[in-house]
Write a structure and sequence with these properties.
The structure holds 2 protein chains of 2 kinds. By secondary structure, chain A is an all-alpha fold. Chain A contains 21 helices and no strands. Chain B is an alpha/beta fold. In chain B, the strands form 2 sheets. A 7-stranded parallel beta sheet of chain B has the order 3-2-1-4-5-6-7. Chain B has a 6-stranded parallel beta sheet with strand order 10-9-8-11-12-13, sandwiched between helices. Chain B starts with a strand and ends with a helix. The chains are: A mainly alpha, B alpha/beta. Chain A: Keywords: Membrane, Transmembrane, Transmembrane helix. Chain A: This is Integral membrane protein.
């Protein structure tokens, strides 16, 4: 294609041509610098008109042979015949504007390219070399790509429809899993009701273990797990311990505090709500059952937030649309938990302890939401502070029994006298939950909190 | 001389893809010490372990690129502000937004001129932002958390919305910003490594990065922090690979534009800072020049291939079937076997006794389907034929694999034919062609990729997708045994001159010496109280290699001793004691030996 005899080759198929290619290859001096070579190629290539060579004739069947369907539509109707047997006249196709034909063939590439180098890379991947570019009267592929990039008509981009985010759906086993802690806890409570003495103790221990395992499984998989979210934050081992403490307090603490204020307790808890150290079973059951609405709320929040993320154009817009979403999910959970508390209290004929259980549930949900979106610091602080406050309140009552330390118990005593023993955890959890809620509306409305980790190899 | 060799997913790992030439280089240059700095790409790669290391490797430091656990570093307010500034500048340089100093100017033309003050200005902005981030990471001890943070996303958004930003960047949506931030975080992970101290890359006389792109980043920072000269070797073009990778998978235009800008600017900065840039062929060279590499610093180092396997075949006189064409390679649609078969049909018309052997297997479903297609086409084009009415016939086109009875080794495959044919439409560096040249075969190839510069006039070259030209070239060679022999001998001579492992190693050795002679690292050695020690680095310390011989003078009996810097670097004992180069702890590989 670079010597006149060779580029004229398709026109004279019957003329015997001794060594059609060897002149070019053997005549090429190895010492020639690449740019000089290019120049010589360009100079020779432009003499017989470039479009008459074999390459433009073979252009239309390039794509099918390569197996890349990128520009399969570029094949003109007569391309089948042309590829089978080259009719000399076929070489004339597109002779007027060879670059236009090339652009048509690679129009996908041209339209999606963000700069000329991308077109150059794509052209090279399709076998276009500098010597091919010389046929289009260009020095190299880069300048050919620049012309193509400059000539491609870009319609003012229609705002691309927000891509339907591939939202994970809750599977059946995740739904079952979310109901598991509640079911286990209900079974344990029934067992406590039906048994006596040592058996009851065994049932209580088994029940606690079963519920803990159920919750643990729930936190490993599904919407409440930390998998598939933003870079998992630094793990804070304290969070788990504080959570256990808070839940234990919800079951045992109110009874102990109530008894302690009045001089008790006179014995260990016996598993009933009427003993010397009464157990608050109803809030525990409601909280265990509340795992299900918590899972659904987290799922709802994640899915909706991801949709908003795909649809929004700016970070502020996204933040503004996510904040109400967070509040809605949170509110739904609170409503469901309140209903569960009322139902549990009615079924078990116990005081439900609505205020403290509700605030504790809110605190735990917010802490978990923050954790699964990569913010581990604030939940650890909030949970730790709450647990400390509760422990101090409890300890102050007992410390007041020491000689000379009577005034220590005054704040707690007055609080208990005014609103009952449940107000201590309610106040502590409520304050922490409020703080976390404010924190969450700021942090969870950030787009980076909803970025998913790329599939790492 | 002490060379810091930086690889990415490469050499010391067993499954490293570009490991072979690094290994040959390290083994071939026993007179130098090598410190390996390896970035691993996957966990699997890391689990598979290292290849056995030669004794000139004094230590190996690795870092994973595939994971980024949060380092738990929390920035203070000042560090946060520094990060915001640097990252914002980086984002602005990527999106092409006008700089802060030009943004406030009311006059539009003036702002335009200041913001787009030529490629140099852009490159400077990018470089200063990059080094700013690196310094921040060095001062604070971590960067990953900040790169993940909302601050980074906000900076990106601001840059994309700023006046003067690229068209594609202006259309960036929130998911695009997140994707870009994640990619940047991945690409900038080498910034947070602790390799750029005086006991790391700073102790090297020369930093050689085995690839461009992310792998060149440690070298760039060593150049910035410790003034270690940088040698960049690119056998592929990372920028081009990036374009091909992102173009195919339907990434959003904004993401592609920003990431392409990042990789382009990074390549430019690497080329600006490198003392010497090497490439394997003219194609890579053109991309390097396009990205701003200075021509005076470009060197072509042809890839080295092991010629030993082909020596026997190449040296013996031609004793082959004079009518056979051979194609050797991995079957793939880009190899255009269909065109080869059509060409062979024409050859048969001129030379009815000609035969074609296609040697090579197919891997992958596409390639297997293509091979099946080719076999079917061959069966259609060429009916089986026999010598006489009483013999069993055979097809003139045979499909074989290496290791079969007809072609037990690669060299046998090449030797079995009179002419080796290469019919590709797309090709990078044609390995098969070089092998054929080693075997002294006459070749006919298509003019793709680096074929012309490899063959250099010692074989025939025809345009791609031109079966008739291919056929005529083959016929010309089949009919002319003398010319075949002449071309084969010339090809073998050329290959032995240019494409052997020895020339590759010698070329790098020469480049090492050239760099060290042109930009020697001058270190000021301090004593315990911080005063500079005069004459601590004696003149012979700058002599490349072990000027006293390869055996360490101190402990000639211990083979591991030459790897200790104090022994390899002759100088007074009092200077060594206070050397800025603390003796490296013996690496595990050394201890095991």
């Amino acid at each position: 294609m670079t010597t006149p005899g060779e580029s004229g080759h398709p026109f004279t198929p019957t003329t015997p041509q001794p060594r059609p290619a060897s002149d070019r290859a053997e005549g090429l001096r190895p010492g020639l610098a690449p740019d000089e070579r290019d120049r010589s190629v360009t100079a020779v290539g432009t003499q017989p008109h470039s479009a008459s060579g074999p390459l433009s004739a073979s252009g239309s069947d390039e794509q099918p042979r390569l197996g890349a369907g990128a520009a399969a539509g570029g094949a003109t109707p007569d391309s089948g015949a042309a590829s089978e047997r080259r009719v000399p006249g076929a070489a004339r196709r597109g002779a007027v504007d060879p670059v236009k034909a090339l652009m048509h063939r690679h129009r996908d590439l041209c339209e999606r390219a963000v700069d000329p180098l991308e077109i150059a890379a794509g052209l090279e991947a399709h076998g276009v070399t500098d010597r091919t570019a010389a046929r289009f009267r260009h020095r190299d592929v880069f300048s050919l790509a620049e012309e193509m990039y400059a000539r491609v008509s870009r319609a003012p981009e229609a705002p691309s429809a927000p891509v339907a985010a591939d939202v994970p759906r809750m599977t059946v086993d995740q739904v079952v899993l979310s109901l598991l802690p509640g079911a286990l806890c209900a079974a344990a409570v029934t067992g406590l009701r039906l048994t006596e003495g040592r058996t009851r103790l065994a049932v209580a221990v088994a029940g606690v273990l079963a519920v803990a395992l159920g919750v643990r499984t729930l936190l490993r998989r599904g919407p409440l797990s930390t998998l598939g979210h933003t870079p998992a934050g630094t793990s804070t081992p304290g969070t788990r311990a504080w959570t256990y403490w808070l839940i234990a307090y919800a079951v045992l603490g109110d009874g102990l505090l109530g008894a302690a204020v009045t001089g008790g307790p006179d014995g260990l808890p016996d598993g009933t709500a009427t003993g010397p150290w009464p157990l608050a079973v109803a809030p525990a059951l409601a909280l265990a059952l509340g795992c299900a609405p918590a899972t659904w709320a987290a799922h709802l929040f994640a899915v909706r937030a991801r949709r908003r993320l795909a649809a929004s154009r700016g970070l502020e817009e996204f933040a503004a649309s996510v904040r109400p979403l967070l509040l809605a999910a949170f509110g739904l959970f609170l409503g469901a938990l309140a209903a569960l508390l009322a139902a549990c209290g009615a079924v078990l004929h116990q005081p439900a302890g609505t205020a403290q259980a509700l605030t504790l549930g809110a605190l735990l949900l917010l802490a978990r939401l923050l954790t699964i979106h990569g913010f581990t610091h604030a939940p650890a602080v909030a949970l730790g502070a709450t647990a400390t406050v509760e422990a101090v309140a409890q300890a102050s009552v007992f410390a007041a029994r020491l000689p000379g330390c009577g005034p220590l118990a005054t704040p707690v005593d007055s609080l208990v006298a005014a609103w009952g023993p449940g107000c201590v955890p309610a106040l502590a959890c409520g304050t922490a939950a409020l703080a976390l809620l404010v924190h969450a509306t700021r942090t969870l409305s950030r787009a980076s909190a909803h970025a998913r980790v790329e599939g790492q190899p | 001389m002490r060379i810091g060799l930086v690889t990415e997913g490469g050499y010391p790992y067993v499954s490293g893809d570009a490991g072979l030439w690094c290994e040959r280089l390290v083994r071939g240059l026993g007179q130098h010490e090598f410190d390996l700095y390896a970035l691993s790409r996957t966990r699997q790669q890391e689990d598979e372990g290292w290849v056995p290391l030669p004794r000139q490797v004094s230590r190996v430091r690795t870092a994973p690129l595939w994971t980024a656990e949060d380092d738990g570093v929390r920035y203070g307010r000042r560090a946060r502000r520094r990060f915001t500034e640097c990252y914002g500048e980086l984002a602005a340089a990527l999106s092409g937004a006008r700089g802060a100093e030009a943004g406030g100017v009311g006059d539009d033309t003036e702002g335009e001129a200041a913001g787009r003050g030529g490629p140099d200005h852009e490159a400077d902005r990018f470089a200063s932002a990059l080094y700013g981030l690196a310094e921040l990471a060095r001062d604070e001890g971590g960067l990953v958390g900040a790169l993940h943070s909302e601050t980074a996303v906000r900076a990106l958004e601001r840059a994309c919305r700023a006046p003067g930003a690229m068209r594609e960047a202006r259309e960036a949506r929130v998911p695009d910003l997140l994707t870009v931030a994640a990619h940047l975080e991945h690409a900038l992970r080498p910034l947070a490594l602790d390799w750029y101290e005086d006991d790391g890359l700073g102790a090297a006389d020369l930093c050689h990065t085995a690839a461009g792109g992310t792998a060149a980043l440690p070298g760039l920072l060593a150049r910035h922090f410790c003034d270690v000269p940088l040698l960049v070797t690119e056998y592929g073009v990372p920028l081009r690979a990036h374009y091909l990778a992102t173009g195919a998978d339907g990434t959003a235009p904004a993401v592609r534009a920003l990431l392409a800008a990042f990789h382009g600017r990074l390549a430019t900065e690497v080329y600006r800072q490198a003392a010497v840039i090497t490439h394997g062929n003219a194609h890579t060279r053109r991309w390097q020049e396009r990205c701003g590499a200075d021509r005076t610093r470009l060197r072509t180092v042809h890839p080295g291939m092991d010629a030993a396997a082909f020596a026997e075949v190449g040296e013996e006189p031609e004793a082959v079937d004079a009518d056979t064409l051979v194609w050797v390679g991995r079957v793939d649609p880009a190899k255009d076997l269909v065109s080869l078969l059509h060409a062979f049909a024409e050859v048969r018309r001129a030379e009815p006794k000609a035969r074609l052997r296609v040697v090579g297997g197919a891997s992958g479903p596409d390639a297997v389907a293509y091979l099946g297609h080719c076999k079917a086409l061959a069966a259609q084009l060429f009916p089986d034929e026999a010598e006489g009415p009483h013999t069993v016939g055979d097809n003139p086109v045979s499909f074989e694999e290496i290791g079969g009875p007809e072609a037990p080794t690669l060299a046998d495959a090449y030797a079995s034919g009179a002419v080796t044919v290469l019919s590709s439409v797309v090709e990078g560096f044609p390995v098969g062609l070089v092998e054929a040249m080693f075997c002294g075969c006459a070749t006919v190839s298509t003019d793709v990729g680096a074929v012309v510069e490899v063959i250099g006039g010692t074989g025939l070259v025809v345009p791609p997708r031109n079966p008739r030209a291919l056929a005529e070239a083959c016929v010309a060679l089949l009919r002319d045994p003398e010319r075949r022999a002449r071309l084969g001998a010339a090809a073998r001579a050329r290959a032995l001159e240019l494409f052997t492992v020895e020339q590759n190693i010698a070329a790098f050795h020469g480049i090492y010496l050239e760099i060290v002679s042109r930009c020697p690292v001058r270190r000021v050695v301090l004593n315990d109280s911080g005063e500079p020690l005069p004459f601590a680095t004696p003149a012979e310390a700058h002599v490349p290699g072990h000027w006293t011989g390869p055996v360490a003078p101190a402990t000639p009996t211990a083979p591991a001793a030459p790897t200790a810097p104090a022994a390899s670097r002759p100088g007074p004992a009092w200077a060594n004691a206070a050397s800025v180069r603390p003796s490296a702890p013996a690496p595990t590989t050394e201890a095991a030996r």
